[in-house]
Structures are given as C-alpha cells and as structure tokens.
Design goal:
The chain is of the alpha/beta class and 301 residues long. It has helices at 6-13, 30-38, 60-69, 85-97, 127-139, 168-181, 194-206, 225-234, 242-249, 254-272, 291-299, and strands spanning 17-22, 46-49, 74-79, 102-106, 156-161, 185-190, 214-219, 280-283. Strands 1-2-3-4-5-6-7-8 form an 8-stranded parallel β-barrel, surrounded by 6 helices. Helix 10 packs across helix 11 (291-299).
C-alpha cells in the first residue's frame, strides 16, 4: 500500500519540505509534552521525534502518537543501538497500528556518548538493514524471517547522512546503499560548511541519487560559542568551522549570541535551499523547540 502521509505526498509532488526535531525529555507528564509541542509552530511538513539520542527519555513511539493527537505529523525515529530485530519489528507494527506513517532509521550515538554510558548496546542489525526490513514490510508484507503481516502496513522510510565524512567516494557509496535499501528521504547532519556540503550533493547528483530520494539538509541553531565548541568536541558528526565559533564568541552577551546563531542558520538556508538536489530543510532543535518558529520567520520559510 502506498504511504499516504503528508511527507510522502510532499515528496511525490516535489514540494519544498520543512521538517523539525522534537527532543523528548525525561518525563511522563502529558501536559509538559503537549506544551513543548505547541512551541513548534506552523508551516512544518512533519516533525522528527528523537529516539533516546542522549540516554533515557520518553519513548519516540509514545511521543509520536502524542504528537499525532496534537495535529502534528510525526516522523518516528528508531535507533538500532538499543533493540534487536524482534523489538524493532514489533515497534514498527505498533507504530503502524497507531497510524504512524513515517519512520527514520538510524544506528544512534554510541552509548558512551549518552547519560547511560554503562548500558550495553545491541546493534543486532544496522540502519541499512532496518531500512530493508521496512521495505519488506511495506512491499511484501513480511518480516525479516518471512512471517506474513496481518492488516495494513504502510510507512515511508528515511535515513540520515553526514555530508562531511571522508573520503567522499565511500560516503556516496554508503548513501547509495541506504537509498537502494528503501530510504525515500535523507535528512543530513547539520550544515555549517557550505562548500563541503555543495561538493557532497554535487556528487550525489552525478550518481543520480537525488533523483531517487529527497535530500533534506539539517540546520542547527546554536545558542553560544560554548555550545558550538562542546558539540564539536564530543560529536564527530558536528563539523563546525572556526569562523562560526569566532563569530558567536565575538557577538557579545548571551542574547546577542542566540540571535547570531539564528542569523547564521538563516544565511545558510538562503544559500543552500536553491542548490540542485536540495528538497527542503530539517531544523535540528537539539531540545530548543522554541527556536524553530523564530528561525522559520527569520529565514522566510
């Protein structure tokens, strides 16, 4: 069955896609969750629900269901770090039962980068194998072991890519594997180095990858130079040039640094949104959901 989500329709129609990120907290309080969701504002195609990137938090599946009841289309995230193939497929069936139509498949940060560094990882399958599993569930109505699925299962699957991993040739090979496995959209790690991003997407264009999937580059509003330095130090997928950090440092007090962070993102959006192969923008809130509508306004999105 063809997925009928707003995201799927936007991809099919060639619309400019705007997604954002919701980072669940360590809470079971419905009112506090609903309050955060309301800060995201309007104009979004769909909203990612992070899957415990930094340790234990409200589950992505539960928060995705809650988001749908608030009138926001969720992108249910699944990391293979914490679940074996039984749990992954069970949660996919649960998501379909709850009416969730979008899933983002990723491996997840290693547990040593979370607040639960002593936990055991699983990695029974990787993100590409998870994509293939979703594709099989969609197209053949079967699980990995061939068992038939009862009822309807219809879900659009996406993946994550880091445009800055080198060498470029291997980066593009891995991207192509994700698309072949069934990724219908690709959300990237945050873009701060525009020229390196341009080289990556030009390579994807040359390989015909951008004709087969929707590339949605990530944009991350930074609040301060300290935040930028911390992210660059601890997370290798955050490639933040010195000039960005220097600009934030020289901006002045906290408020001016926050506004400068938004201005930097707005400038990046203005430059990359018209590059061939770019199909939208993904705002990585990092838990700063209140910054999403501000950035949408500033950038004219």
């Amino acid at each position: 069955m063809k997925p009928d989500s707003k995201l799927a329709q936007s991809i099919e129609n060639g619309d400019f896609i705007i997604t954002a990120e919701y980072l669940p907290r360590i809470t079971a309080d419905k009112q506090s969750v609903d309050s955060v969701l309301k800060t995201l504002g309007n104009g979004l195609t769909a909203v990612n629900v992070s899957d415990n990137p930094y340790g234990v938090a409200l589950s992505s599946l539960a928060a995705s269901a809650g988001m749908a009841t608030n009138g926001i289309e969720p992108i249910f995230q699944m990391v293979t770090r914490d679940r074996n193939r039984i749990a992954l497929q069970s949660d996919l069936l649960g998501a379909a039962y709850l009416g969730i139509k979008n899933v983002l498949c990723l491996s997840g940060y290693h547990q040593t980068l979370t607040a639960s560094s002593g936990s055991a990882n699983v990695y029974d399958i990787d993100s590409i194998q998870l994509l293939a599993a979703v594709t099989g569930m969609n197209e053949q109505r079967v699980l990995i072991n061939g068992a038939k699925i009862g009822g309807e299962f219809s879900m659009i699957a996406g993946a994550v890519a880091n445009p800055f991993l080198e060498p470029l040739e291997l980066n593009i090979i891995r991207l192509a594997k994700k698309v072949k496995a069934g990724a219908q959209f690709i959300q990237t790690q945050p873009v701060f180095n525009i020229e390196k991003f341009r080289l990556w997407i030009e390579a994807a264009n040359q390989e015909g990858i951008t004709e087969k999937t929707a590339i949605i580059p990530g944009i991350l509003p930074l609040n301060s130079f300290e935040e930028a330095e911390r992210l660059r130090e601890f997370y290798t997928d955050h490639i933040i040039p010195n000039e960005i950090i220097d600009r934030l440092r020289s901006a002045g007090d906290d408020t001016i640094q926050k506004n400068t962070g938004l201005a930097i993102c707005s400038e990046i959006i203005g430059t990359i949104k018209d590059i061939q192969g770019v199909c939208g923008i993904h705002i990585l809130s990092g838990g700063k959901e209140d910054r999403v509508p501000e950035l949408l306004d500033m950038s004219g999105l």
